[in-house]
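Minutes, methods subgroup
Present: GH (chair), OT, SY

1. OT presented the first of two proteins processed in the latest run. Sequence and C-alpha cells recorded below as shown on screen.
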Amino acid sequence: MKEPCVYIMANAHRTIYTGVTSDLYSRVWQHKHHAFEGFTKQYDCTRLVYNAEFGRMDDAIAWEKALKGKSRAKKIALIEAENPRWNDLAWNWYDG
C-alpha cells in the first residue's frame, strides 16, 4: 500500500477529514491510534471511508486540494458513491 493516495477518515457522526499520504496503511494506523494531536484525534475520526490511489504524488496532492475545495455535500456524495454505508475500509488491517 505504499503508493500516493488521497483518503477520507470519518467518525460515527460523519465528521470527515481529507488527507494525502504515500503510505495509507501506516497513516490510517496513526489516525486509529491517535498518534498525533489534531483534528482527527479531537473528533475521533478513525474510520477509513474513502481512498483513491495515484501513480504520482503530485496527482494525489492535486486531487486532495480539489477535494478540500469542494462542499461537504460533494464529499459526502463521493463517499456514498463508493461506500454507501460508510463502512470502515480498514476494519481488518490491524490486530486488536
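2. SY then presented the second protein from the same run.
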Amino acid sequence: MSENVVHITVRPNGPLRVEGHIVLKDADGREWDLTGKPAISLCRCGMSDKRPFCDGAHARNNWVCETAPPDNLT
C-alpha cells in the first residue's frame, strides 16, 4: 500500500514537489509522459513558461507565498 502513497511538499516561495506514483492529466484526460520521473515540481506562482511544471520563474521574479496552512484549515 505504501507504494501508492504520493507525497506533496509545499516548497517555501516555490513549487509543489510531488513524489510517488504520479499520473498527471490535462483537462481533456490526456496524460503527460512521466516515465522515469519519481518526482516532479508543479508551478504555484503561475509564471512558469513550462506550466504545469516549475521552471524557476518564482525565484527570478521574487515570488513570495506562505508554506504553512492557515489556522482555520479543516
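Chair's summary of item 2: The mean pLDDT is 90.
Next meeting: continue with the remaining queue.
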